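User: Some background: our group keeps a shared notebook of sequences we're curious about, and every so often someone picks one and asks for a predicted structure to add to the entry. Today it's my turn. The entry only has the sequence so far, pasted here. Could you supply the structure so I can complete it?
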Amino acid sequence: MLAAATFQPPRLTYIKLDPVPYGARAAGVVAVEASVSASGAVDGVRTIKSVEPFTALMTGGASSWTFEPARDGDQPVACHQLMLGIFRPAMLLYPAPPPPEPKDYPLSDDVPRPTKWSMPPYPPNATAGDAIVVVEVDVDDGGAVTGTRVLTSVPGYDDAALGAARQWAFKPATRANRSVRSRVIMAFYFRQPL
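Assistant: Of course. Here's the predicted structure to add to the notebook entry:
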């Protein structure tokens, strides 16, 4: 087996997320774990933390998501991927939901576990209505966020999503009993006032 230091986590290449149903009035964080094959296809999704009616938005189209597969040395390998949906209503009608308390969710070892959460502020000058900003978050082998990349951009909302993503912290993922780098996909849903 190759040293864990040669492990490269998967990189998202395609995701489709449905809009929030009209009139949905909840907030919070949905967590799902996707099984990603050595070819980069999603071959299973497991709900870790549910917030109705939003859980189906994160799991419904998961079979169509694709990744550049994880690699251990030169070999593509199967792994698991943490996907988070952060649902943020407009501040005008609802206060920001409190960040969830860190829990030891039943995640696979090769998935980082959140230890510090952050909910984004609702951008006061944003005009796009409902918006979904998807951010890829790089997590180092110590659990710190070392990089963020916007995958789907909505002007006026990106900075709030990136700022929140950078404040998260994790217990690192492991492979072969060693801490490894990982990635987390965060989909920030901003709801317009109803």
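Suggested note for the entry: Residues 4-15+27-190 form a domain with the TolA/TonB C-terminal domain fold (CATH 3.30.2420.10). DSSP finds two helices and 15 strands in the chain.
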